[in-house]
Amino acid sequence: MENEFFAGFIRLHILYHAHEEPIFGLEILRELRRHGYELSPGTLYPLLHRMEERGLLKSEKELVTGRIRRVYRITDSGRQALFEAREKVRELFGELFSQDSLFCPDRRQAEKNMEKS
Fold first, then answer.
1. Which of 2, 24, 31, 110 has its CA 20 to 30 A from that of 17?
2. b/e per residue, 18-53, with b = 16+ CB within 10 A?
């Protein structure tokens, strides 16, 4: 179950970084690891290919320091998906981290104190 949630976050990270600048596999692997996601190339590259098949990314081969590298750029559909996801994430995180949220440590402590009274 955890992986299903994280898979969505990983896709959003990829779209976000591809929106900021063109990305390539090793670079995005490092970036995702920086955020705590441990993906292997065998997991990442099929994900990038699926995102390209769905029209969210577009790739091109580029010659970089004498080597061919596949570089991914966000598409218009990818930008639209990122924009829509951003609004949904903002709303969800606003609820998760509000003072009324069950996840708020201050609220849990206040409820415990009320039960003791």
1. 2
2. beeebbebeebbeebeeeebebeeeebeebbeebbe
